[in-house]
Write a structure and sequence with these properties.
The protein is built from 33 helices and no strands. By secondary structure, it is mainly alpha-helical.
Length: 702
């Protein structure tokens, strides 16, 4: 609902509003509005970028209401009830028959006649009455998700009564909603100043105003300005309303979300927990808002790698939504996606896939096959298939997701950029670098245009394009992109954020690939320090940093240090992800590589075999990582002179790579050269030369 409040004192006449509209009728109206908004967006003649942005925002709001139609209907009832009471107060200003007809329509959920009466009052009333009429028109426009009209009326009300804090606050809210942040800030500030003067500094209305201003700053990335406002709002509500009031839960949740955005997970957790406890006490254990709190806390735990803590929370949230909203509601689909993502993070792909599929089916049935939320589910399922090496299954899903978003949201929407990024990543994995580059560049251009050059998502696009160039060995092109990405992350998120650690790690990987170990080491170490501080000593990302530092030490011949880091990395991955996760296979293989260097073949063999077994079980027998394990084991046997045992492993490895990645993928090169070396040792020179020629063709092509 709008941030504004009733200004004219009501008569205390309580009316049951919209008794004549059912939830099903309300949902049907929302669906019609969604289709109409999407149709308007699709019109090629729309050239006004601001109008496009506003339509997209309105579309998002309609979709949000469809996900929680019960609360949305209650919000609509409140807006119409407020209009009803205001008309009752203004009855001496209006023809009785028109007034009664307008009120009857409001009871049935229709506002057209009421709006006509408010227009009359607005045109001939005094300043105070005209301002209230404009305010009510703003409320009604907002209720039907016509933000442009609501913004104009709310602005008019604030101009007519510039000392009315509620009109100012509403105008600020609507300016914020339509993206006019520079207009919103002074309106919010003036409203806050008046409220503090009228009610005193510790009134709940002041708390709401502080919360509104904080949300504005958070949206703009001004986290340092947002935090003290959220804290003061929380303190006021706790003192004025009591520590267990629902509005306190709202403040706790908002402050926790701010901390989570900044990577301050230890500060976010107790706030989320307390917010959850308040909602359970006030609303009962099975309320949708309780489910939302459970979901938020689970997401925090998942981010921290505390998967065992996240899973029961996701499951309980899912159960609540299924019970209160039904098993085929879009909110249930989102919950399924979250739980599936948790399983994917743990490498339990078989558990994730049916959840993603069920979520997709629910959304297609509830929202239609071309809905943007369907595009999200398609992307997630495609990501799962990509992780499993099932590229042929992933590609059509990524392409369909992109097509839906381009049609529904326009070619320059940030969600389109995300789909382009996902499809580019798939092509990169398959070695289709030219296709990947084109998509990454378009994704970057969209994000720079819509979000500004210093947004974290722009940093993500820069990082992805840099990764592509690094994979191709184009190090000079990759380095400035990595550096710019890092600079954006440090500026937007602070120097100790986990995303900064990721950027540092990736830049270090670039230097490592170039053999610039002295430049890579301090970046790896700083990345590790950030992750240990922000995520805890046993987080999977900490294990990744340890593994990378170990590889660096191995390259430098510091084998004892490398082994220590590899073993610590392995212990973390086993603890957090389980003994059969693909990351565990990586650690086992890396430790086996060390034994191979030592000449400790008997110790290396069982590790290579176990790594292979984990990958075959988790990823399937035809995954490229399985091919890598086969290659490693074959190399061990070849080094020992056991050529008969090595050859079938090399052959199977090459068959998998050719099947999954194509015969000209760069990943084929090393396996081909290894096999050629074996053939030469077997004096099969002609075969060896043919294999070496194939490797050279790939190298020249790429």
């Amino acid at each position: 609902m709008l941030a504004g409040r009733d200004i004219i004192q009501n008569t205390g006449n309580n009316v049951n509003i919209i008794t004549g509209i059912t939830l099903e009728q309300y949902e049907a109206g929302l669906k019609r509005q969604e289709q109409e908004t999407r149709a308007e967006l699709a019109q090629e003649r729309i050239a006004d970028k601001n109008k496009i942005a506003l339509l997209k925002k309105e579309l998002t709001k309609v979709q949000a209401k469809l996900k929680n139609p019960v609360d949305a209907l209650e919000e609509s009832k409140n807006i119409l009830a407020q209009a009803y009471r205001t008309l009752d107060i203004l009855r001496q200003e209006l023809p009785l028959n028109q007034l009664e007809q307008a009120q009857q329509d409001l009871v049935k959920g229709r506002s057209g006649d009421a709006e006509k009466l408010f227009q009359k009052v607005r045109s001939y009333g005094g300043k105070k009455i005209s301002a209230e009429a404009a305010y009510q028109l703003a409320q009604l426009a907002y209720g039907r998700i016509d933000y442009s009209t609501a913004y104009q009326y709310s602005k008019e009300a604030a101009e007519l009564q510039s000392d009315n804090p509620f009109y100012l606050d509403t105008a600020g809210f609507m300016a914020y909603t339509v993206g006019r942040y520079s207009e919103a800030e002074p309106l919010y500030k003036r409203s806050l100043a008046i409220l503090e003067k009228v009610f005193g500094p510790n009134h709940p209305e002041v708390a709401q105003s502080l919360n509104d201003l904080a949300a504005l700053y958070q949206t703009q990335g001004a986290y340092a300005q947002a935090e003290p406002l959220y804290k003061r709002s929380l303190a006021i509500r706790e003192k004025a309303l009591g520590p267990t009031h629902p509005e306190v839960a709202q403040s706790l949740n908002g402050l926790a979300a701010l901390y989570q955005t900044q990577g301050a997970y230890a500060q976010a957790e107790p706030l989320y927990k307390r917010s959850l406890a308040i909602r359970e006490k006030n609303l009962g254990p099975d309320h949708p808002e309780v489910a939302a709190s459970l979901n938020n806390l689970a997401l925090l735990y998942q981010t921290q790698g505390a998967y065992a803590q996240a899973e029961p929370l996701y499951k309980r949230a899912l159960a609540i939504w299924e019970k209160t909203l039904g098993p085929n509601h879009p909110a249930v689909a989102e919950s399924l996606n979250n739980l599936a993502a948790l399983y994917k993070s743990q490498g339990t792909y078989a558990q994730a896939e049916p959840l993603y599929k069920r979520s997709l089916a629910i959304q297609e049935k509830a929202l239609g096959h071309d809905h943007p939320d369907v595009a999200i589910s398609l992307n997630l399922l495609a990501e799962l298939y990509r992780a499993q090496g099932a590229y042929a299954k992933a590609e059509p899903l990524d392409k369909r997701s992109l097509a839906i978003r381009e049609k529904a949201l326009g070619p320059d929407h940030p969600d389109v950029a995300q789909s382009l990024n996902d499809l580019a990543a798939l092509y990169q994995t398959q070695g289709a670098y030219a296709q990947a580059e084109q998509l990454y560049k378009r994704s970057l251009a969209i994000r720079e245009k819509t979000l500004g050059p210093d947004h974290p998502e722009v940093a993500a696009s820069l990082n992805n394009l840099a990764e592509l160039y690094r994979t191709q060995g184009a190090y000079a092109r990759a380095e400035p992109l990595y550096k710019r990405s890092l600079a954006i992350q440090e500026k937007a998120l602070g120097h100790d954020h986990p995303d900064v650690a990721m950027s540092l790690n990736n830049l270090a990987v670039l230097y490592y690939a170039q053999g610039a170990y002295a430049k890579a080491e301090p970046l790896y170490k700083r990345s590790l320090a950030i992750r240990e501080k922000a995520l805890g000593l046993d987080h999977p990302d900490v294990a990744t940093s340890l593994n990378n530092i170990a590889l660096l030490y191995q390259k430098q011949g510091a084998y004892f240090q490398a082994q220590q880091f590899f073993r610590r990395s392995l212990a973390i991955w086993k603890k957090t992800l389980g003994h059969d996760h693909p990351n565990v296979a990586v650690s086992l293989s890396n430790i086996a590589d060390l034994y191979l260097i030592y000449g400790a073949y008997a110790q290396a063999e069982p590790l290579y075999k176990r790594s292979l077994a984990i990958r075959e079980k988790a990823l399937g027998p035809d995954h490229p990582d399985v091919a890598q394990s086969l290659n490693n084991l074959a190399l061990l046997y070849a080094t020992q002179g056991a050529y008969v045992k090595a050859e079938p492993l090399y052959k199977r490895s090459l068959t998998i790579l050719e099947k999954t990645l194509g015969p000209y993928h760069p990943a084929m090169v090393q396996s081909l050269l290894n096999y050629a070396a074996l053939l030469r040792k077997l004096d099969r020179v002609v075969e060896a030369e043919a294999v070496e020629t194939s490797a050279k063709v790939i190298q020249v092509t790429h």
